[in-house]
Amino acid sequence: MWQPSLANFSPAPISFATESVILARQCSIPSILKRALYEIVRTEAFGENDDEGEINAFRLSSADTRRLQRAREKLISLWITASLSGNFTTCPSSSESIEPKGKGIKTECPTNDGKQATLAHVKIVHASGIFEKYHYDPMCGFQALMEAPWAEEGFCQACVEMGQVKWGEAREKCWKDLDTYFGIGVVI
Questions:
Q1: Alpha carbon distance 48, 62 (integer Å)
Q2: Alpha carbons 76 and 101: distance in angstroms, whole number
Q3: What is the mean pLDDT of each run of 10 residues along the chain (188 residues)?
Q4: Looking at the domain assignment, is residue 13 inside a domain?
Q5: pTM of the full predicted structure?
Q6: For residue 122, what are the domain limits?
């Protein structure tokens, strides 16, 4: 039986997520629950309104709605914690000077200067809109952080890679924890 994994997670929205959850519950097909529930939890109003603002005719059970509410609280908390602070602690290349892309002058990695690191973090995560855009969607938010232009803000390659590893690990843990958040395997 096919099992959802992080490897085949796509940021593209899936259609009919609510209907998929209802069908999965009725027909005992738990393998599609995680992805369908995540699609619902990452949308405004849990996907109850369609594009025209009309109420979706399909309704989730009250148990699934409560699970979605609790999961969203946990996901928001996780995202806020992860995105408000940078993943940069100590630069492994602290003795080396680097040349930021397009700057033409050598500087130290911002990781070595808390103020520079904070300013770069604010610019990349907050001013760019990443923080707000992925408020309900940390799975895609972690990917956005991994792909953000850290090197362009002067971070050395070692720090960029270190951040990518940490955000990748956080993304994997988030995906794993969704089973608990959504009560996957719990019979209703």
A1: 13
A2: 33
A3: 57 82 87 90 73 57 90 94 76 59 59 87 94 94 94 92 92 92 70
A4: yes
A5: 0.80
A6: 6-182
